[in-house]
Amino acid sequence: MHQKAGTILHLFRTEDGYISGEHLSRELGVSRTAIWKHITALRNDGYHIEAVPSRGYRLVSSPDSIDPLEVNARLVSTKVGRRLEFMKVTASTNADAFKLAEDGAVEGTVVLADAQTGGKGRRGRVWASPAGVNLYCSIVLRPAIMPHEAPQLTFLSAVAVARAIEQTTKLTPEIKWPNDLLIDGKKVAGLLNEMSAETDGINFVILGIGVNLNMTSSEFPDDLRQPATSLFLESGARVDRLLFTSTLLNELDKLYADFLIHGFGPVREEWQRRCNANGRQVLVSDSGTECTGGQFIGIDSDGAMLLRTEDTIMHRITCGDVRVI
Length: 325
Ligand code: BTN
Prior knowledge:
The chain folds into three domains: about 5-60, Arc Repressor Mutant, subunit A; about 70-275, Bira Bifunctional Protein, Domain 2 (BirA Bifunctional Protein, domain 2, 2-Layer Sandwich); about 280-325, SH3 type barrels (Roll), CATH 2.30.30.100. Strands 3-4-5-9-8-7-6 form a seven-stranded mixed β-sheet, with helices on both faces. A five-stranded antiparallel β-sheet has the order 13-12-11-10-14, with no helix packed on it. With about 325 residues, it is an alpha+beta fold. It is built from nine helices and 14 strands. Biotin binds near residues 92, 120 and 122.
């Protein structure tokens, strides 16, 4: 979007009611014909702008798009989103962010996409990424931590997604170990973090976040491994993608700033409180075989699950599927 069009939108949002063409042309320092061209371009982008003779223009509604200028205008963050890249269609925002990070992109760089053609899920799975309905984003971070501590940032992103869901809907999500976001037992968001590291430190971490916002049932693939849903399907109300994106990035920024000062403790505490298995009896299966039953105690500093079995021995579990019983 053109910078001047961004300023027109900003004026619509800060000044109530109609704004005359004359006022807009004075504020932007351009002719009224130029204003008219920007208004036409905004309308072509899906903005509904009413024009009434002798009163001026009024913004009636905005499209459900995630224009980076619009996201930027809503950010209060200091690090996350200081550089924003938006792609209408890309293979994978994680792959894009990884390349940018290798080329030296600043910490806090965010890649957003409207659609992905090769969305990556965990364990080599595909992440369904249709256009115009969901959130697909990847964030570059460069924390001074050891490689084995990197999973802490996945837990941090799960907490940020949970907070954003609570702030933008009436829903209460749960987190399932290791890092699925569930509503009513169905998966609504997934996290895929990737990193580049040396033995003694991290070059960068990519936080990959996919949230099913307004997806409808027919848009889900048929061969889903586990039940999935979207915020729209669960709440019956469409989610404003722009609001969700900016809320999520602002929450990530707060959590990350806190993490750099106080470490993993506060994130771990909030993650455990939000975990569907917290303190409960669970069965952990590996590749479909039920192997261990016990009480879910929490997570270790490297993300391993802590499970206390009947013989009161504490086990560290690093992979498997957890079922609450
Ligand atoms: C999972 O399997 O649960 C993880 C899914 C992660 C999907 C997101 S969408 C944005 C980012 N880009 C990708 O290619 N994957 C992640």
